[in-house]
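Example 753.
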Amino acid sequence: MISDRTIARQISIRGVVQGVGFRPFVVRIARDHGIAGWVMNDEAGVVIHAEGTASSVATFLRHLQELSPPAAQIESMDVHDVSTASPLGFRIISSRRAARPTARISADLAVCDHCLREMHDPTNRRYRYPYINCSDCGPRFSIIRQLPYDRSETTMSGWGMCELCQQEYDDIFNRRYHAQATACSCCGPGFRLIEASQVVTGSESAIGHAAKLLSLGKIVAVKGLGGYHLACDARNETVVRTLRERKFRKERPFALLVRDLAEAREFVSLTPLHEELLLSSARPIVLAVARRELPEVSPENPFLGIMLPYTPLHHLLVQLGSPTPLVMTSGNRSQEPIAYRDDQALESLSGLADAVLLGERPIARPVDDSVVAVRKDRPFMIRRARGYAPAAVCQIPSQAPILAVGSDLKNSVALAVAGRVVVSQSLGDLSDCETQNTFDSTVRDLLRIYDLRVNELTVVHDLHPEYFSTRFALQLPARRHIGVQHHHAHIASVLAEHDLCRESVVGVAFDGTGYGADGRIWGGEFLVGSLSLGFERQHSLRPARLPGGDAAARFPVQAAAGFLADLESLPDFTRPPWSLPARFQGALQLARKNVRCFVATSMGRLFDAVAALTGFVREQSYEGQAASWLEFRASSCSPQDPYPFPEHDFRPLFMAIIADRQRGRPVAEIAAAFHAAVAVATVESIRMISRRRQLRTVALSGGVFQNALLLNLILDALAEDPGLRVIVNQHIPANDGGICVGQAALASGSERL
Ligand code: ZN
Ligand code: ZN
Ligand code: FE
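Predicted structure in complex with zinc ion:
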């Protein structure tokens, strides 16, 4: 009978299939179905040789996809006929490493339920062991020094396995078969607590003592997966205030680590998508509307950032008596990158924390917590780091290796290898010299991991000549350098993410600052183009003269002066209802005389200016604070009719706002009418350009679109237009964290020409 004949197939699987227990999984299902052959890792993923009857091979193939391990992500599966080799049984053969590696490195994974049950079981030999993990869970990216993912190439290389761990590691039917980071309290690393001159040794005692300190209102530096956190009791206002003072972090919200989903529901309103994100193995910080007020944690902000415990250590802290929720903020002073080396942490965190809970397993690279919001029932990435990096985010047409160095703010870098775009963790602002060092080592890391030499790379950078990233890119002895305009990159990032390589679109890029193709500052841009043809500017916010350089971004009143200098007559801003500080008058003089001014079409600064005129007159203590303040006020009232904002000419807009303020109209209404004005003017421009250029796809990107109210107003209005399809960023940030992806995609488009 034909069905009994033995057939042979070679199966090449790409995706996240290394370091996630994939090969043992293949062996198990092969043996279940009587398949003979072998499986091995190769530079691109996993290759399988499978022999059996046609029906058993068919079931085997189906189960490969349907039953794959939780952390695996199969991107493609190619199946070829090959000749039979009649192997005996099914086994794992050693890795082949011929060409350059493109196998994706798994991101770090939250501890799995299986491991947690063991950790809580007093009869288990890993009872209360803070580094418990298995093939399905635990650290990956944060401990890998180099590919292939073998223990000797990780930060676990310093620990040999005890006999029992080795047995599990060697047993194909064990969950810890080839689990590279496996360990136990007999053989693996542990934790100790350092409090002034005292050291508490023994993981359980150290963690228990840390939990006690937290409940006594102390600040403890806790070593996590990708760096040190500063932790304290979120319900204790005094200690949260102390943390703010020590960290020099005035008002920016802190994230919370809650005990479990039930506690998360107590503190924030969650949709099913919020819960799915909270429980995902990436375990990001999820932004959701607060149900409880915690003014010290999230001042003047209706949202809270919440995450669930994701390391065994977090679970142990809670179990051993730590209060919850805990404020968990990256261990650093504001602006500095997260501390991740022990020596560095002991030195730099000693003034910030009352004690340091030091974990002995080294961290290979700093990886911050990720932050994700929800927009229109879709995930909306704000900061992409732990749990996501360095997964590939999209495919691009060019096979040539491309390094894209991103923007200087919210930097992250992208590397395209064989058409896949891999994105680093978010690194922060490159004005800080520690961050510059991390940037440098991240680039080197990525090149080493993917075995690339600089002289074969196309290196893509921003057009800003003063950016650290631009200068860094230009001094690399690369095959080719390409400069990509900032807002072109924003729009390209959306297209790349939605896999629209050839589609021509109307792109709307709203942000604070980006270096324009004309050397001016852009940030309220309407573009037309595609990844393969590039973009051209169609329209923008009316240019304003902003006085005083970078300070205009920190002081909303200074931005206001720039916009208002364009108006014919102004009221006396020293009298009520205005209470603008002297800085405003000074800036107004500069703007009127056009001294120390720069021309800008920045939508971000427009929001700042309106915030200043409605009451936000102080310095912003973090980026986007004034615009968020304005958004939250607008969201607190019912929708209002829009102010006039014809073709993004801000003069009638400001005249109307000034008149309303003098009339005593509530600030929330003014803020809402302003949001409506921006939405209406933007929708009109989109419709006009799409009609004129016969384009049906609209892409929105840039940091301003993190404003949920504005984004929703625009999406709702455009949804009434059945001919238009609107796309926004989802898995990569709409802010400058996504610039590197857009750069890589545009460079790839031009590479093919
Ligand atoms: Zn596990
Ligand atoms: Zn062991
Ligand atoms: Fe930007």
